[in-house]
Amino acid sequence: MTTAGTARETTTRTGPAAARQHTLRERNLELIARAVFEVPEPLSRAGLAAATGLARATVSTLVDQLVAARLVRELPAVNGGRAGRPAVPLVPAPRSVVGLGLEVNVDYLGARVLDLTGDVVAERVVPGAFHDSDPTAVLRRLGDLAREMSDGVAAAGMTVAGARLALPGLVDPRTGLLEVAPNLGWSSLEPVPLLGLGETEVRIANEAKLAALAELAGGSDVAAPDSFIFVSGDVGIGAAIVVDRELFLGERGWNGEIGHVVVDPAGPRCSCGAFGCLEQYAGKVAMMRAAGLPPDAPLASLVTQLADGDAALRAGDRAAPTAGDRAALPAGRALGSALADFVNLFDVATIVLGGAYTELLPWLRADVEAVLADRVLAAPFVDLEVRAAQAGPHAALTGGARQVLQAVLADPAAWV
Amino acid sequence: MTTAGTARETTTRTGPAAARQHTLRERNLELIARAVFEVPEPLSRAGLAAATGLARATVSTLVDQLVAARLVRELPAVNGGRAGRPAVPLVPAPRSVVGLGLEVNVDYLGARVLDLTGDVVAERVVPGAFHDSDPTAVLRRLGDLAREMSDGVAAAGMTVAGARLALPGLVDPRTGLLEVAPNLGWSSLEPVPLLGLGETEVRIANEAKLAALAELAGGSDVAAPDSFIFVSGDVGIGAAIVVDRELFLGERGWNGEIGHVVVDPAGPRCSCGAFGCLEQYAGKVAMMRAAGLPPDAPLASLVTQLADGDAALRAGDRAAPTAGDRAALPAGRALGSALADFVNLFDVATIVLGGAYTELLPWLRADVEAVLADRVLAAPFVDLEVRAAQAGPHAALTGGARQVLQAVLADPAAWV
DNA sequence: GCGTAATAGTTCATCCGTACAACAAATGCG
DNA sequence: CGCATTTGTTGTACGGATGAACTATTACGC
User: Fold this and answer.
1) Best mutation target, A230, A280, A347, to test chain B (most B CBs within 10 A)
2) What is the rounded distance in angstroms from the CA atom of residue A72 to the CA atom of residue A66?
3) Range(s) for CATH 1.10.10.10 in chain A?
4) What is the spatial distance between Cα A113 and Cα A200, in angstroms, rounded to a whole number?
């Protein structure tokens, strides 16, 4: 009737682990590490104590461990113009522990190494055409490139904490399995072993998800939002959700497929089988076609055409709508419509547009914002913001490297 | 140049608090409490030690505190047929600490008291017509009812740990502000003070969100999923997202507005101003109208009509499509389409249909599942499941009370 | 019926990590 | 030059988890 007292072997749910003494140390190490990394101006030991609420003595011992682990570095003591012993500013250690971001996409593969300060230590991007490519060959090539860079930074005394491989497709980060990457023509394979990087821990992720993480670094002038929807437009359209600076992945990491939200069931048939998906209006191919340009033309040609249209408009030639207008308008309204659904379902008020949309934003913004204001139920009560992505090109490389370094910060005890 | 060493008063982000000694005790108390409540069969102190990894001595002191706090109760010692001292099974304490769920909806108001075992200790539901009602009068009435029940259970020696008020509208749980509840005709008010329950802590929440929490209790036969999308269909259509047994609320708790996902931009105009919202196909009014019934007829009339249609169909009268068919089909396909968008954006594979949809599910399932299988990108790789809600009527009352009790479990140290 | 093994629960010395207070170090200011 | 002020370190105290030893209570074999 009852099994009370029996040690049950079938653990129903693996709940949180019991808290021991060393759990305290681990948590506080993390607290200190995060504080050092996230504060705009460097803090001293005493400053960290005030910021975290820990005692100065405790902070001292923790900081000493982080310094010994080469995660934190002491700057020369500086006196802030006040009386008292000068403080020792503590900063993330440059060129010590680094993260490696890898990516295979349709038109390039690449690798980027970031250190804890966010600096790019090394980078290699190789253009190519990987549509319908052979995963074994491509991944071996990327693996060779990664090993080269890895050896280089190791020779300079740095430690590679891990790597993330960004792929444009349905990826399960937990199992390491790529289900399908339509634009690469890859399916049902385990990419990590094919890289041949036995020594470093590599995990895979969706390209848009990692690109979103790159946004968390913020721009030169504008701070990164804590929660946002990141939409990356290219041939396909992917999205990622960041809530409180953490990726929201759903059950398997297959969320954010905004490209196949139906905008109009009477619209053109999509490659996925449905009709009127967003991709058919705001995907790169659709936008190019609407502008009368060849589908595989570079994005720049669309941008110049749109800019020319603006110039003509400013010159007073209002009568003639340009090809650019025809291109931008349907994409903008369709994107706005899909984003309105997204915001209604998620309640995240900041939308970051990446990929091709970053450059096209001037011609999309008005339509997107108008549709959002109309269609988002909470619009009267909240400031919806549409902004351009701040991270530069190949953002997924940066995001992947950042994710590795975030993992280091989340468990600095592993490095002491 | 640098402010190192300055205790900064402007805390950039209120990160996690520093871990002290008592943090250990709090976390482990929570661990034990959750284990007692979530395990199917009652465990003894030794069983808990094995399940949590804590030492038997530690578990003993923690359990003693929980028993003293009246959160856990010891059952008579039972021997499982094995040698050794008989074990003392530990169970959630009945009729000791209780949670209070409150709700105002269009056609009723009510209150329900649940104890830690999940039993309904007391309940009052008052039918009414609160469309375009006066919030002050209605909330005072509910407050009176709540105080009555609260006094009753207090007289029986129980402690009311808190209350949750469920409302059908845009609600910000953090500020306690109701922005708008269209079907009640309420807007921009703070409902909690109007209840007049000064002594107990009351928080507000959206009705669908709390109804979703009620699902976590599971049914008599079927276990509750850990992550699911809960859709509650009535006049309006609301949804909630539960991930790992926790509500996902977005930035303000205004997510899940699936009723205004656009299914067809060429569709009928919605009250929200857009065209072809899901509500225009699968809202109760739309379904009634499509079935040729008066919009305010009870749901049961639609169900009987549909059942009659089935009977006619079984009788071989295949030539004549019934009015029920006309009602169910557009609603089912529209619902499937909006859910497909939802799943594509969220990657949560289990969908629980509540409200009116629970009873209508037999006539919706085929269409919903067919559209999902077509439109969800991950459908080939994951088992999508559509199931009926398990919680009974007025689920938000149960969910609200459960949320109060969950808060108790999350911080049992406050009760020792 | 009794000894032994087995299991549950408790007691106690120990260890670990944080807190607090006292102290040393280093600076500005009158 | 002395004093106030702030930073960083040292030493003691305290809270909480641990493991071993101990008690309590049963089943089982002889």
Assistant:
1) A347
2) 6
3) 21-92
4) 13
- Give the Cα separation of B119 and A20 in Å (integer): 34
Helices (H), A94-183: 135-155
How far is residue A33's CA from residue A409's CA, in Å, rounded to a whole number? 6
Architecture of domain B97-215+395-415: 2-Layer Sandwich (3.30)
CA of A83 to C1' of D2 (A): 15
Predicted local distance difference test score (pLDDT) of residue A1? 37
A11 at B interface, C-beta within 8 A? yes
Question: A145 to chain B, minimum CA–CA distance in Å?
Answer: 32
Tokens of A150: 């890895």
Bases on strand D under 7 Å from any protein CB? 4-11, 14-21, 24-28
The helix/strand/coil state of A159 is strand
CB-strand contact B56/D, under 7 Å: yes
- Please answer yes or no on whether B254 and A347 come within 8 Å at the CB atom: yes
Q: pLDDT tier at A3 (50, 70, 90 boundaries)?
A: very low
Closest partner CB to B5 (pick from A54, A87, A170): A87
Nearest beta carbon to residue B274 from set A21, A250, A375:
A375
Q: What is the distance, to the nearest Å, from the Cα of residue A376 to the centroid of all Cα atoms in its chain?
A: 25
Neighbours of A75 (CB within 10 A): 14
Instruction: In whole angstroms, give the CA distance from residue B400 to residue A278.
Output: 38
Which of B346, B350, B384 has the highest number of chain A CBs within 10 A, making it the mutation to test binding with A? B346
B57 CA: nearest nucleotide by C1' = C10
What DSSP string describes B271-310? TTS-BSBTHHHHSHHHHHHHTTS-TTS-HHHHHHHHHHHH
The tokens for B400 are 């609200």
Long-range contacts of B45-51 (CB under 8 A, 24+ apart): B45/B87, B45/B88, B45/B90, B46/A5, B46/A7, B46/B87, B47/A3, B47/A4, B47/A5, B47/A6, B47/A7, B47/A8, B47/B87, B48/B90, B50/A7, B50/A8, B51/A7, B51/A8, B51/A11
What are the φ/ψ torsions at residue B324 (nearest 5 degrees)?
-60, -40
pLDDT digits (tens, 9 = 90+) for A86-145: 999 999 999 999 999 999 999 999 999 999 999 999 999 999 999 999 999 999 999 999
Residue span(s) of chain B under CATH 3.30.420.40 come to: 97-215+395-415, 228-388
Which residues does chain A have within 8 Å of residue B3's beta carbon, measured at their own beta carbons?
41, 47, 80
The helix/strand/coil state of B92 is strand
Q: Give the whole-angstrom CA distance, residue B227 versus residue B337.
A: 20
Residue B246 is encoded by which pair of tokens? Answer: 């926790």
Q: From the list B4, B54, B347, which residue is nearest A43 (CB)?
A: B4
D5: residue with closest CA to C1': A84
Write out pLDDT tens, residues B102-156: 999 999 999 999 999 999 999 999 999 999 999 999 999 999 999 999 999 999 9
- Is B10 within 8 Å of chain A by CB? no
Can you tell me which residue has its alpha carbon closest to the C1' of nucleotide D14? Answer: B21
CATH for A21-92 (1.20.1330.10, 1.10.10.10, 1.10.3720.10, 3.40.640.10): 1.10.10.10
- On whether any CB of chain B is under 8 Å from the CB of A23, the answer is yes
Tokens 């419509």 belong to residue:
A337
Using CB atoms within 10 Å of the CB of residue A23, give its burial: 0 to 12 exposed, 13 to 18 middle, 19+ buried: middle
User: Is the domain A228-388 a CATH 3.30.420.40 member?
Assistant: yes
Q: Write out the two tokens for B107.
A: 């056609």
Whether A410 and chain B come into contact, CB under 8 Å, resolves to: no
Distance from CA of A255 to the nearest CA of B (A): 5
